[in-house]
Fold this sequence. Notes:
It contains nine helices and 27 strands. It has helices at residues 16-20, 59-73, 92-116, 125-134, 233-242, 252-260, 307-320, 376-389, 409-413; strands spanning 24-26, 33-37, 40-41, 48-50, 53-55, 144-153, 158-159, 164-166, 172-175, 179-180, 186-196, 207-208, 215-219, 273-279, 285-287, 290-292, 296-302, 326-328, 331-336, 347-354, 356-359, 361-367, 402-404, 421-427, 435-437, 442-445, 451-456. Pfam families: Baseplate_J (PF04865).
Amino acid sequence: MSFSDDDNINARNISPVQLRNLPIVKDVDTNIPSLKWGGQSTSDHDKEWGNTGIILPEEQDILAGVIEDFQNAFNNQLKFFNNQNEFLLSTPQGQLATSMAAIISDRNRLLAYYVNQVDPSYATGRMQDGIGRIYFIERIKAKATTVTGICRGQKDVLISAGTKVQDGDGNLYEADQNYIIGEDGTVAVNFVCLQKGPINCPAHSLQMYQLIPGWDNVDNPTEGIIGNNVESQAQFEQRRRQSVALNSVNSVDSIMAALLNLKNGNGSSVCEDVYVIDNDSGGGVNKNGVFLKPHSLFVCVSAPDDDWSKQLIAQTIWKKKPPGCDMNGDQIVVIQDQSGLYSTPPKYTICYANAKRIPIRLKITLARPQFLPKNAVDQIKTAIIKAFTGNDGSKKPRIGSEILASSFYAPVQRLGSWISIITLFIGREIASFSLVQMNIDEMPTLNKDDVEVVFNG
Length: 457
């Protein structure tokens, strides 16, 4: 059925059945279906689909279409422009037309957004999580920095769960369980930062925060294992690309994917990073600073050095690696076949490498602005650390990666107009190069103390 001006009917009286039965006509030019009211098609500009995706109409074209619809509905009795052809926004019809055009435009943008969300390169948030689940991977949750503190004091003194210490920057950490000082007057306590994220805890920075009778002092001989924020869009997509071989076996990609998705008991990732390469030749070769035996596999991970993690890593490598190939690395772990196919399960020796943590140094020289913030140096160092650890959502440097000094320009420049970078150098012992190439058994690290900020003038 259709309605004309003579039907003396308004929208309030149209039943759902009548609305569903409204005739659909096709625009002669676009061949796009539209509703027909009283013999008149809507003038609303519809979307187009091209080889590059959805193409949305311009805002002014949408408004022109709404105005035309209004004029058709009111027999051209409405005035939208004055004699100077200026749009009469303050009129009731002007307000209605612009509001409706804005609604249509918002609908179009929302549609374009969700169209782009099916592309893994652009997907974010919940939609990206859904794409990840197709490959059986989950977004990495935020994790707190952990550090081992050596507590000294009298024998049998209890360091209870929740006992707090602090680092040099005032960040608080608490013991993850109860510990008792041993006969030698010490106990190694695992302290977890109260704030999740990439909190840096340098060696020898822990100090007591609360007093316990018989507990004398605390010290951390090594730096803490830096935590992380919730995995960003760019980081998750990078890992998804690396994880597409998760369900395969007998390839370096399948080993890397399985290790990157390896979880411990609390759901956190075991491996911060992974690098896998093989030597298929009959002779030994040097690849990116590491010697590989003939017909061998090299797996390097950045992961905890405890027995539990070693077993998880070794079991994962064994399940995915090709049979019969030799292996490289100083981490030697004996595992047992857990398939349940044998009454006396065979044992295997798995070798891999735990990445050496290599400190990186940066030096940035800037022109001194007329008005320099009091905490300018700290702002710059923090921006660089966030970019290096991926805390700003960027892809962080990895095992065997090439780190460009230029990749830290943008994070610093975003601090404000007072930033004028003259030079920015990077290096290992001395920051005097434009790039640093990590070996395939090296994991780069960066502390605030290793970032030098200089203002000229």
